[in-house]
């Protein structure tokens, strides 16, 4: 824990109750650390922040043109969506273009939620694999298999040609060798990779730079355009990535991941922030992210006000009575 620092504190009745530790890194497209709190090279699993980079084999292989995917389809490939009707329609469209039934999806079935911490679905509601928050990513995986004649039944196996290509593209995007990215299995059963925060930020800074990137320029531009044009499809109603990308006015490409990971990249700056809250607390993650953006000077007065709810400054009782506070307790250090 020596490389993790306190990022967010909560109090109740004026007495400290929780202290959330973590680390964050801000880098440019070369991986140069511009600012940090804690160890900018802290190694963490990327979880769903990896999805835009996991789509690289599909894009680089001409999949978008082959299947005539729309920007909204592409946004779903990068999504951790809420399983709302708009999301299911896009999944259906992707699968139809690839000629695949949803039964081929191996992400499992996950009941959707109405919002970031919203209520569960009503009793008796029926769901299938299309409602899983990762069904867009999995639909893209299957479309790649169709295009390249690869077996669909084993598309999640680490040795599958698709997953080998994903690992190769991800490593190149973040500036690592494959052996430097420990592998684990994500909640949707797909391989996922751990890496230093600075490398994750580097990958997103490159993504945000779009066509300026010599290796993945067209693919990065397509992904950034799709995500910023359709933030509601990337996440869902009342979700954090919608709020952040709308506040960014087309400049910010953002992606949250399970267990306390968040990335925000600025297209105009060619820089990105990657943050990890060690205990996975979502309120602490969002509060720290907004505070970091503020300290970096990325927020104007209007953006600061729009994102104020995501600071989760007031802790309230079930009746809505204020009973405590949540506040950032870190200052960004500039440079490596």
Mean pLDDT over the residues = 95
Biggest sheet statistics: 9 strands, antiparallel
Return the structural class.
Answer: alpha+beta
* Cα radius of gyration in angstroms: 19 Å
Overall helicity: 25-40%
- Indicate the proportion of strand residues: 15-25%
| Low-confidence residue ranges | none
Supply the number of helical segments. Answer: 13
N-to-C span: 19 Å
State the order of secondary-structure elements, H for helix, E for strand.
EEEEHHHHHHHEEHHHHEEEHHEEE
Q: How many DSSP E strands?
A: 12
Shape: globular
Record keyword descriptors for this entry.
nine-stranded antiparallel beta sheet; 36% helix; 13 helices; single chain; three-stranded antiparallel beta sheet; 12 strands; alpha+beta; 336 residues
Question: What is this structure, in a nutshell?
Answer:
By secondary structure, the protein is an alpha+beta fold. Helix content is 36%, strand content 21%. The chain has helices at residues 51-54, 56-60, 63-67, 71-77, 85-98, 135-148, 161-174, 197-209, 217-229, 231-234, 240-247, 282-296, 301-306, and strands at 5-12, 15-28, 33-37, 43-45, 183-185, 191-196, 252-257, 261-266, 271-277, 314-316, 322-328, 333-334.
Characterise the protein shown here.
The protein has 336 residues and is of the alpha+beta class. 36% of the residues lie in helices and 21% in strands. The protein is built from 13 helices and twelve strands. Strands 1, 2, 3, 7, 8, 9, 10, 11 and 12 form a nine-stranded antiparallel β-sheet that branches. Strand 2 and strand 3 (33-37) form a beta hairpin. It starts with a strand and ends with a strand.
């Amino acid at each position: 824990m020596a490389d993790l620092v306190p990022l967010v504190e909560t109090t109740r009745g004026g007495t400290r109750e929780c202290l959330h530790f973590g680390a964050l890194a801000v880098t440019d497209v070369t991986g140069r650390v511009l600012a940090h709190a804690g160890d900018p090279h802290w190694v963490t699993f990327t979880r769903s922040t990896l999805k835009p980079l996991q789509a690289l084999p599909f894009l680089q292989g001409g999949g978008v043109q082959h299947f005539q995917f729309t920007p909204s389809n592409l946004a779903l490939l990068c999504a951790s969506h809420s399983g709302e009707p708009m999301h299911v329609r896009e999944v259906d469209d992707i699968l139809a273009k690839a000629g695949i039934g949803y039964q081929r999806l191996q992400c499992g079935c996950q009941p959707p939620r109405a919002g970031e911490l919203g209520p569960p679905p009503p009793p008796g509601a029926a769901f299938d694999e299309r409602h899983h928050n990762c069904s867009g990513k999995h639909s893209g995986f299957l479309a790649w298999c169709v295009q390249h004649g690869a077996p669909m039944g084993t598309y999640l196996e680490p040795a599958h040609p698709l997953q080998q290509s994903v690992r190769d593209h991800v490593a190149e995007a973040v500036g690592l060798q494959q052996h430097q990215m420990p592998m684990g299995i994500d909640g949707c059963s797909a391989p996922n990779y751990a890496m230093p925060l600075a490398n994750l930020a580097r990958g997103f800074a490159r993504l945000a730079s779009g066509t300026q990137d010599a290796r993945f320029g067209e693919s990065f531009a397509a992904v950034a355009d799709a995500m910023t044009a359709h933030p509601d499809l990337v996440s869902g109603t009342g979700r954090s990535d919608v709020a952040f990308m709308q506040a960014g006015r087309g400049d910010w490409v953002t992606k949250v991941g399970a267990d306390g990971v968040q990335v925000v990249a600025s297209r105009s700056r060619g820089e990105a922030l990657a943050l990890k809250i060690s205990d996975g607390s979502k309120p602490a993650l969002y509060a720290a992210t907004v505070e970091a953006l503020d300290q970096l000077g990325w927020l104007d007065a209007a953006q600061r006000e729009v994102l104020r709810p995501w600071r989760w400054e007031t802790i309230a009782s079930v009746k809505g009575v204020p009973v405590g506070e949540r506040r950032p307790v870190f200052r960004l250090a500039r440079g490596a």
